Amino acid sequence: MTQAVSLEYVLIVAAALFCIGLFGALARRNLISMLMGIELMLNAVNINLVAFWRYLEPSYVTGQVFVLFIIAVAAAEAAVGLAMVIAVYRSRTTLQADEVDSLKG
Amino acid sequence: MQFTLVEIPRLLPELLLLVLAVLVLGSDIFERWASNEEAQIERNRSAGSLTSIGLVLIFGIALLQSGYVYLLPADAPTNPLTNIVRNLQAGGPYAGELLGVPITPILGAFHSDHLTMIARLTFILAAFVTSTIAYETLKIRNPGEFYALLLASTVGMCLMAGATELILAFIAIELTSIPLYILAGYFRDDKRSSEAGMKYFLFGALSSCIMLYGMSLVFGFSANAGSNGPNSGFMTQFRSIAESTEVASNTTLLVVGMIFMIVGLGYKLAVVPFHAWAPDVYQGAPTVVTGFISTASKMAGFLLLLRLLEVAFPSLVGSVALSYSGLPAVEAPVGGWSALLALIALLTLVFGNLAALPQTNAKRLLSYSSIGQAGFILLGVFAWSAINPLDQAIANTSLIYYLVVYLISNIVAFAIICLVEQQSGSDEISAFNGLAQRNLPLAALMTISVLSLAGIPPLAGFFAKFYIFLAAWQAGAWPIVLAAVLVSFISLYYYLRFLKAMFIEAPEQSERLTVPGTALATIAVVSLLVLALGIYPNLLLELVNHTQVIASN
After folding, report:
1. Which residue, of A55, B5, B197, B352, has the fewest CB within 10 Å?
2. Tens digit of pLDDT for each residue in B133-154?
3. What residues does B428 pair with on adjacent strands?
4. Which of B192, B199, B216 sits opposite A49 (nearest CB)?
5. Mean predicted confidence (pLDDT) in B324-330
């Protein structure tokens, strides 16, 4: 099979996206930004899976199905996460992770 | 490979749990929805007792299906009653013996073997204790949702224990975790609960992403290598991954993917250095939920890790054997996933137990203690690297035994903290002061569970520790076993602080601490189990012996 872009380039894009997402999730202090970082990481995984499926075993569906499941679960996770953010905001009126620190020890 | 209707009984406990979850959610509609306290308590009691009764029934059905108490003989007469039992047990772990053909995973994705069955029974027990304590002690808003989420999470754990395929493993982990995020932050007006939920969610989602990235790399590896087996095209199955390593020449991608997956699962299991979230979440979450998170979800995670490593990555096991004169000669050098886990185990043991020493909050202390316990459990996981198949069998057996004993001991401890917290309004250790004078049975039960966690004979915890040390020693990791013995002495100090508070300190209030009868009875029955398993460990060991070989199919 001939492709205009080779598999390595797609994987590099996915890896870069994953690193950006990881950085966002770990370094940003705003809870919404952290959620956005997590979504980026999930999308990196999706790109990886679709690329592996398309380039390596296009005659089967496993990789595609995996991506569909991840998208569905990510939606459920985002819903719960945003609800949590609202609960935290209502009780503290802040979204800065540094200020959500009543548990220590 | 096709799914047939005959295979539905193999998923029966999960299906029944789902039905119960829908029932609990639906029956809540018919309750009196008033804002006064009485109506709320009544709603909570009815939803909670429905959950508890349902869980007892499901436990009974699962026990009958498992065949551990009564296995229908092959020459039993045919009548409606025996037909029901026969059909049930044909979906249980003994189906292989009954039908004469070895059972294989359903669609290669879910295995209903002895490991899954024992895990199911344990998770149902944990959910039962949690729901019983919850409806006796908590004022839960919208109780139907609370118990339905608890049951959904239990289904996820059962699926985690049986998953032999990457997609199902991921779905099961999320089905376990997402309800637990909500449960941890359920009391959203309580600042600590909402903060615990938020932290649990952020770390959980982050670890899922890391694990998924590992899964995608592993999928890429196996899709590239292909497999000679009958499963080509189903390259996310653990077995196909193992088969593809035999074909492939370069396993770098697989190793990287495996490390990502271990890191992601490590976050879920709260092992050092991925433990940072655990004390905060365990302290902030409602105490019953903390008990459930720190026992059942941890056990499910370890079972998934076990199956993943032993079925999908047996070729990367490496070795932890350090040669010394008392052991047979070692062929493989130290390395592989067993050495990685050994390193994590050492860090977890030392950090978890030392950090627990200065704690004054009972929940926080037990959360560090359960981080430390994860270190002991890891000994059983990497002990599988032993060369001798008998030693591998001992490793699996000791791991399952430890997990079950840890779960029942720890859930009792958290349940008692919950009861004391409800009466005194405090979850500090000082709330336990003089508990022996205020309520002797409760103090005695706490003593049993805490001493079992510390590993004092003749309680079950002692035998669990003994077997797991034995297994790790056989694998050649004697320095880690020595460290583990040392830290279990250190851990005695912080466990004994509970006893000092309960039996020596003077009580802050003198009046009797009253405890709901159902809650006390539940805790007492589970504690008796700890005592019985300590005096007669074969009770459980005979069951657990069935899980000796996981990797064979």
Report:
1. B5
2. 999 888 888 899 999 999 999 9
3. B361
4. B216
5. 53
Tell me if B208 and A77 make a contact (CB, 8 A cut-off).
Answer: yes
The DSSP annotation for B363-402 comes to: HHHHHHHHHHHHHHHHHHHHGGG-SSHHHHHHHHHHHHHH
Cβ neighbours, 10 Å, residue B521: 12
Q: A49-70: per-residue pLDDT in tens? A: 999 999 988 888 889 999 999 9
Pair of tokens at residue B117? 């069955």
Mean pLDDT, residues B64-72: 89
We find that the CATH architecture of domain A7-94 is: Orthogonal Bundle (1.10)
What's the confidence (pLDDT) of residue B409?
A: 95
How high is the pLDDT of residue B327? 54
Closest CA to B399 of B306, B495, B286, B282: B306
Q: State the Cα–Cα distance between residues B358 and B436, nearest whole angstrom.
A: 23
Q: Which of B126-140, B216-230, B304-318, B358-372 has the lowest mean pLDDT?
A: B216-230
Distance from chain centroid for Cα B76: 36
Answer yes or no: do B223 and A48 touch at CB < 8 A. Answer: no
pTM (2 d.p.): 0.95
Residue A2: predicted pLDDT = 57
Q: Distance between terminal CA atoms of chain B?
A: 15
What Cα–Cα distance (Å) separates residue B231 from each residue in B226, B228, B256?
Answer: 9, 8, 23
Question: Could you give the dihedral angle defined by the CA atoms of residues B242, B244, B250 and B251, in that order, rounded to the nearest 10 degrees?
Answer: -30
How many CA atoms are closer than 13 Å to the CA of B81, on its beta-carbon side?
3
Across the interface, of B199, B224, B279, the residue whose CB is closest to A56 is: B224
Q: Which amino acid is at A58?
A: P
Calpha distance A21→A45 (Å, rounded): 11
Using alpha carbons, list the distances in angstroms from residue B305 to B13, B286, B367, B378.
Answer: 22, 27, 21, 10
Domain ranges of chain A: 7-94
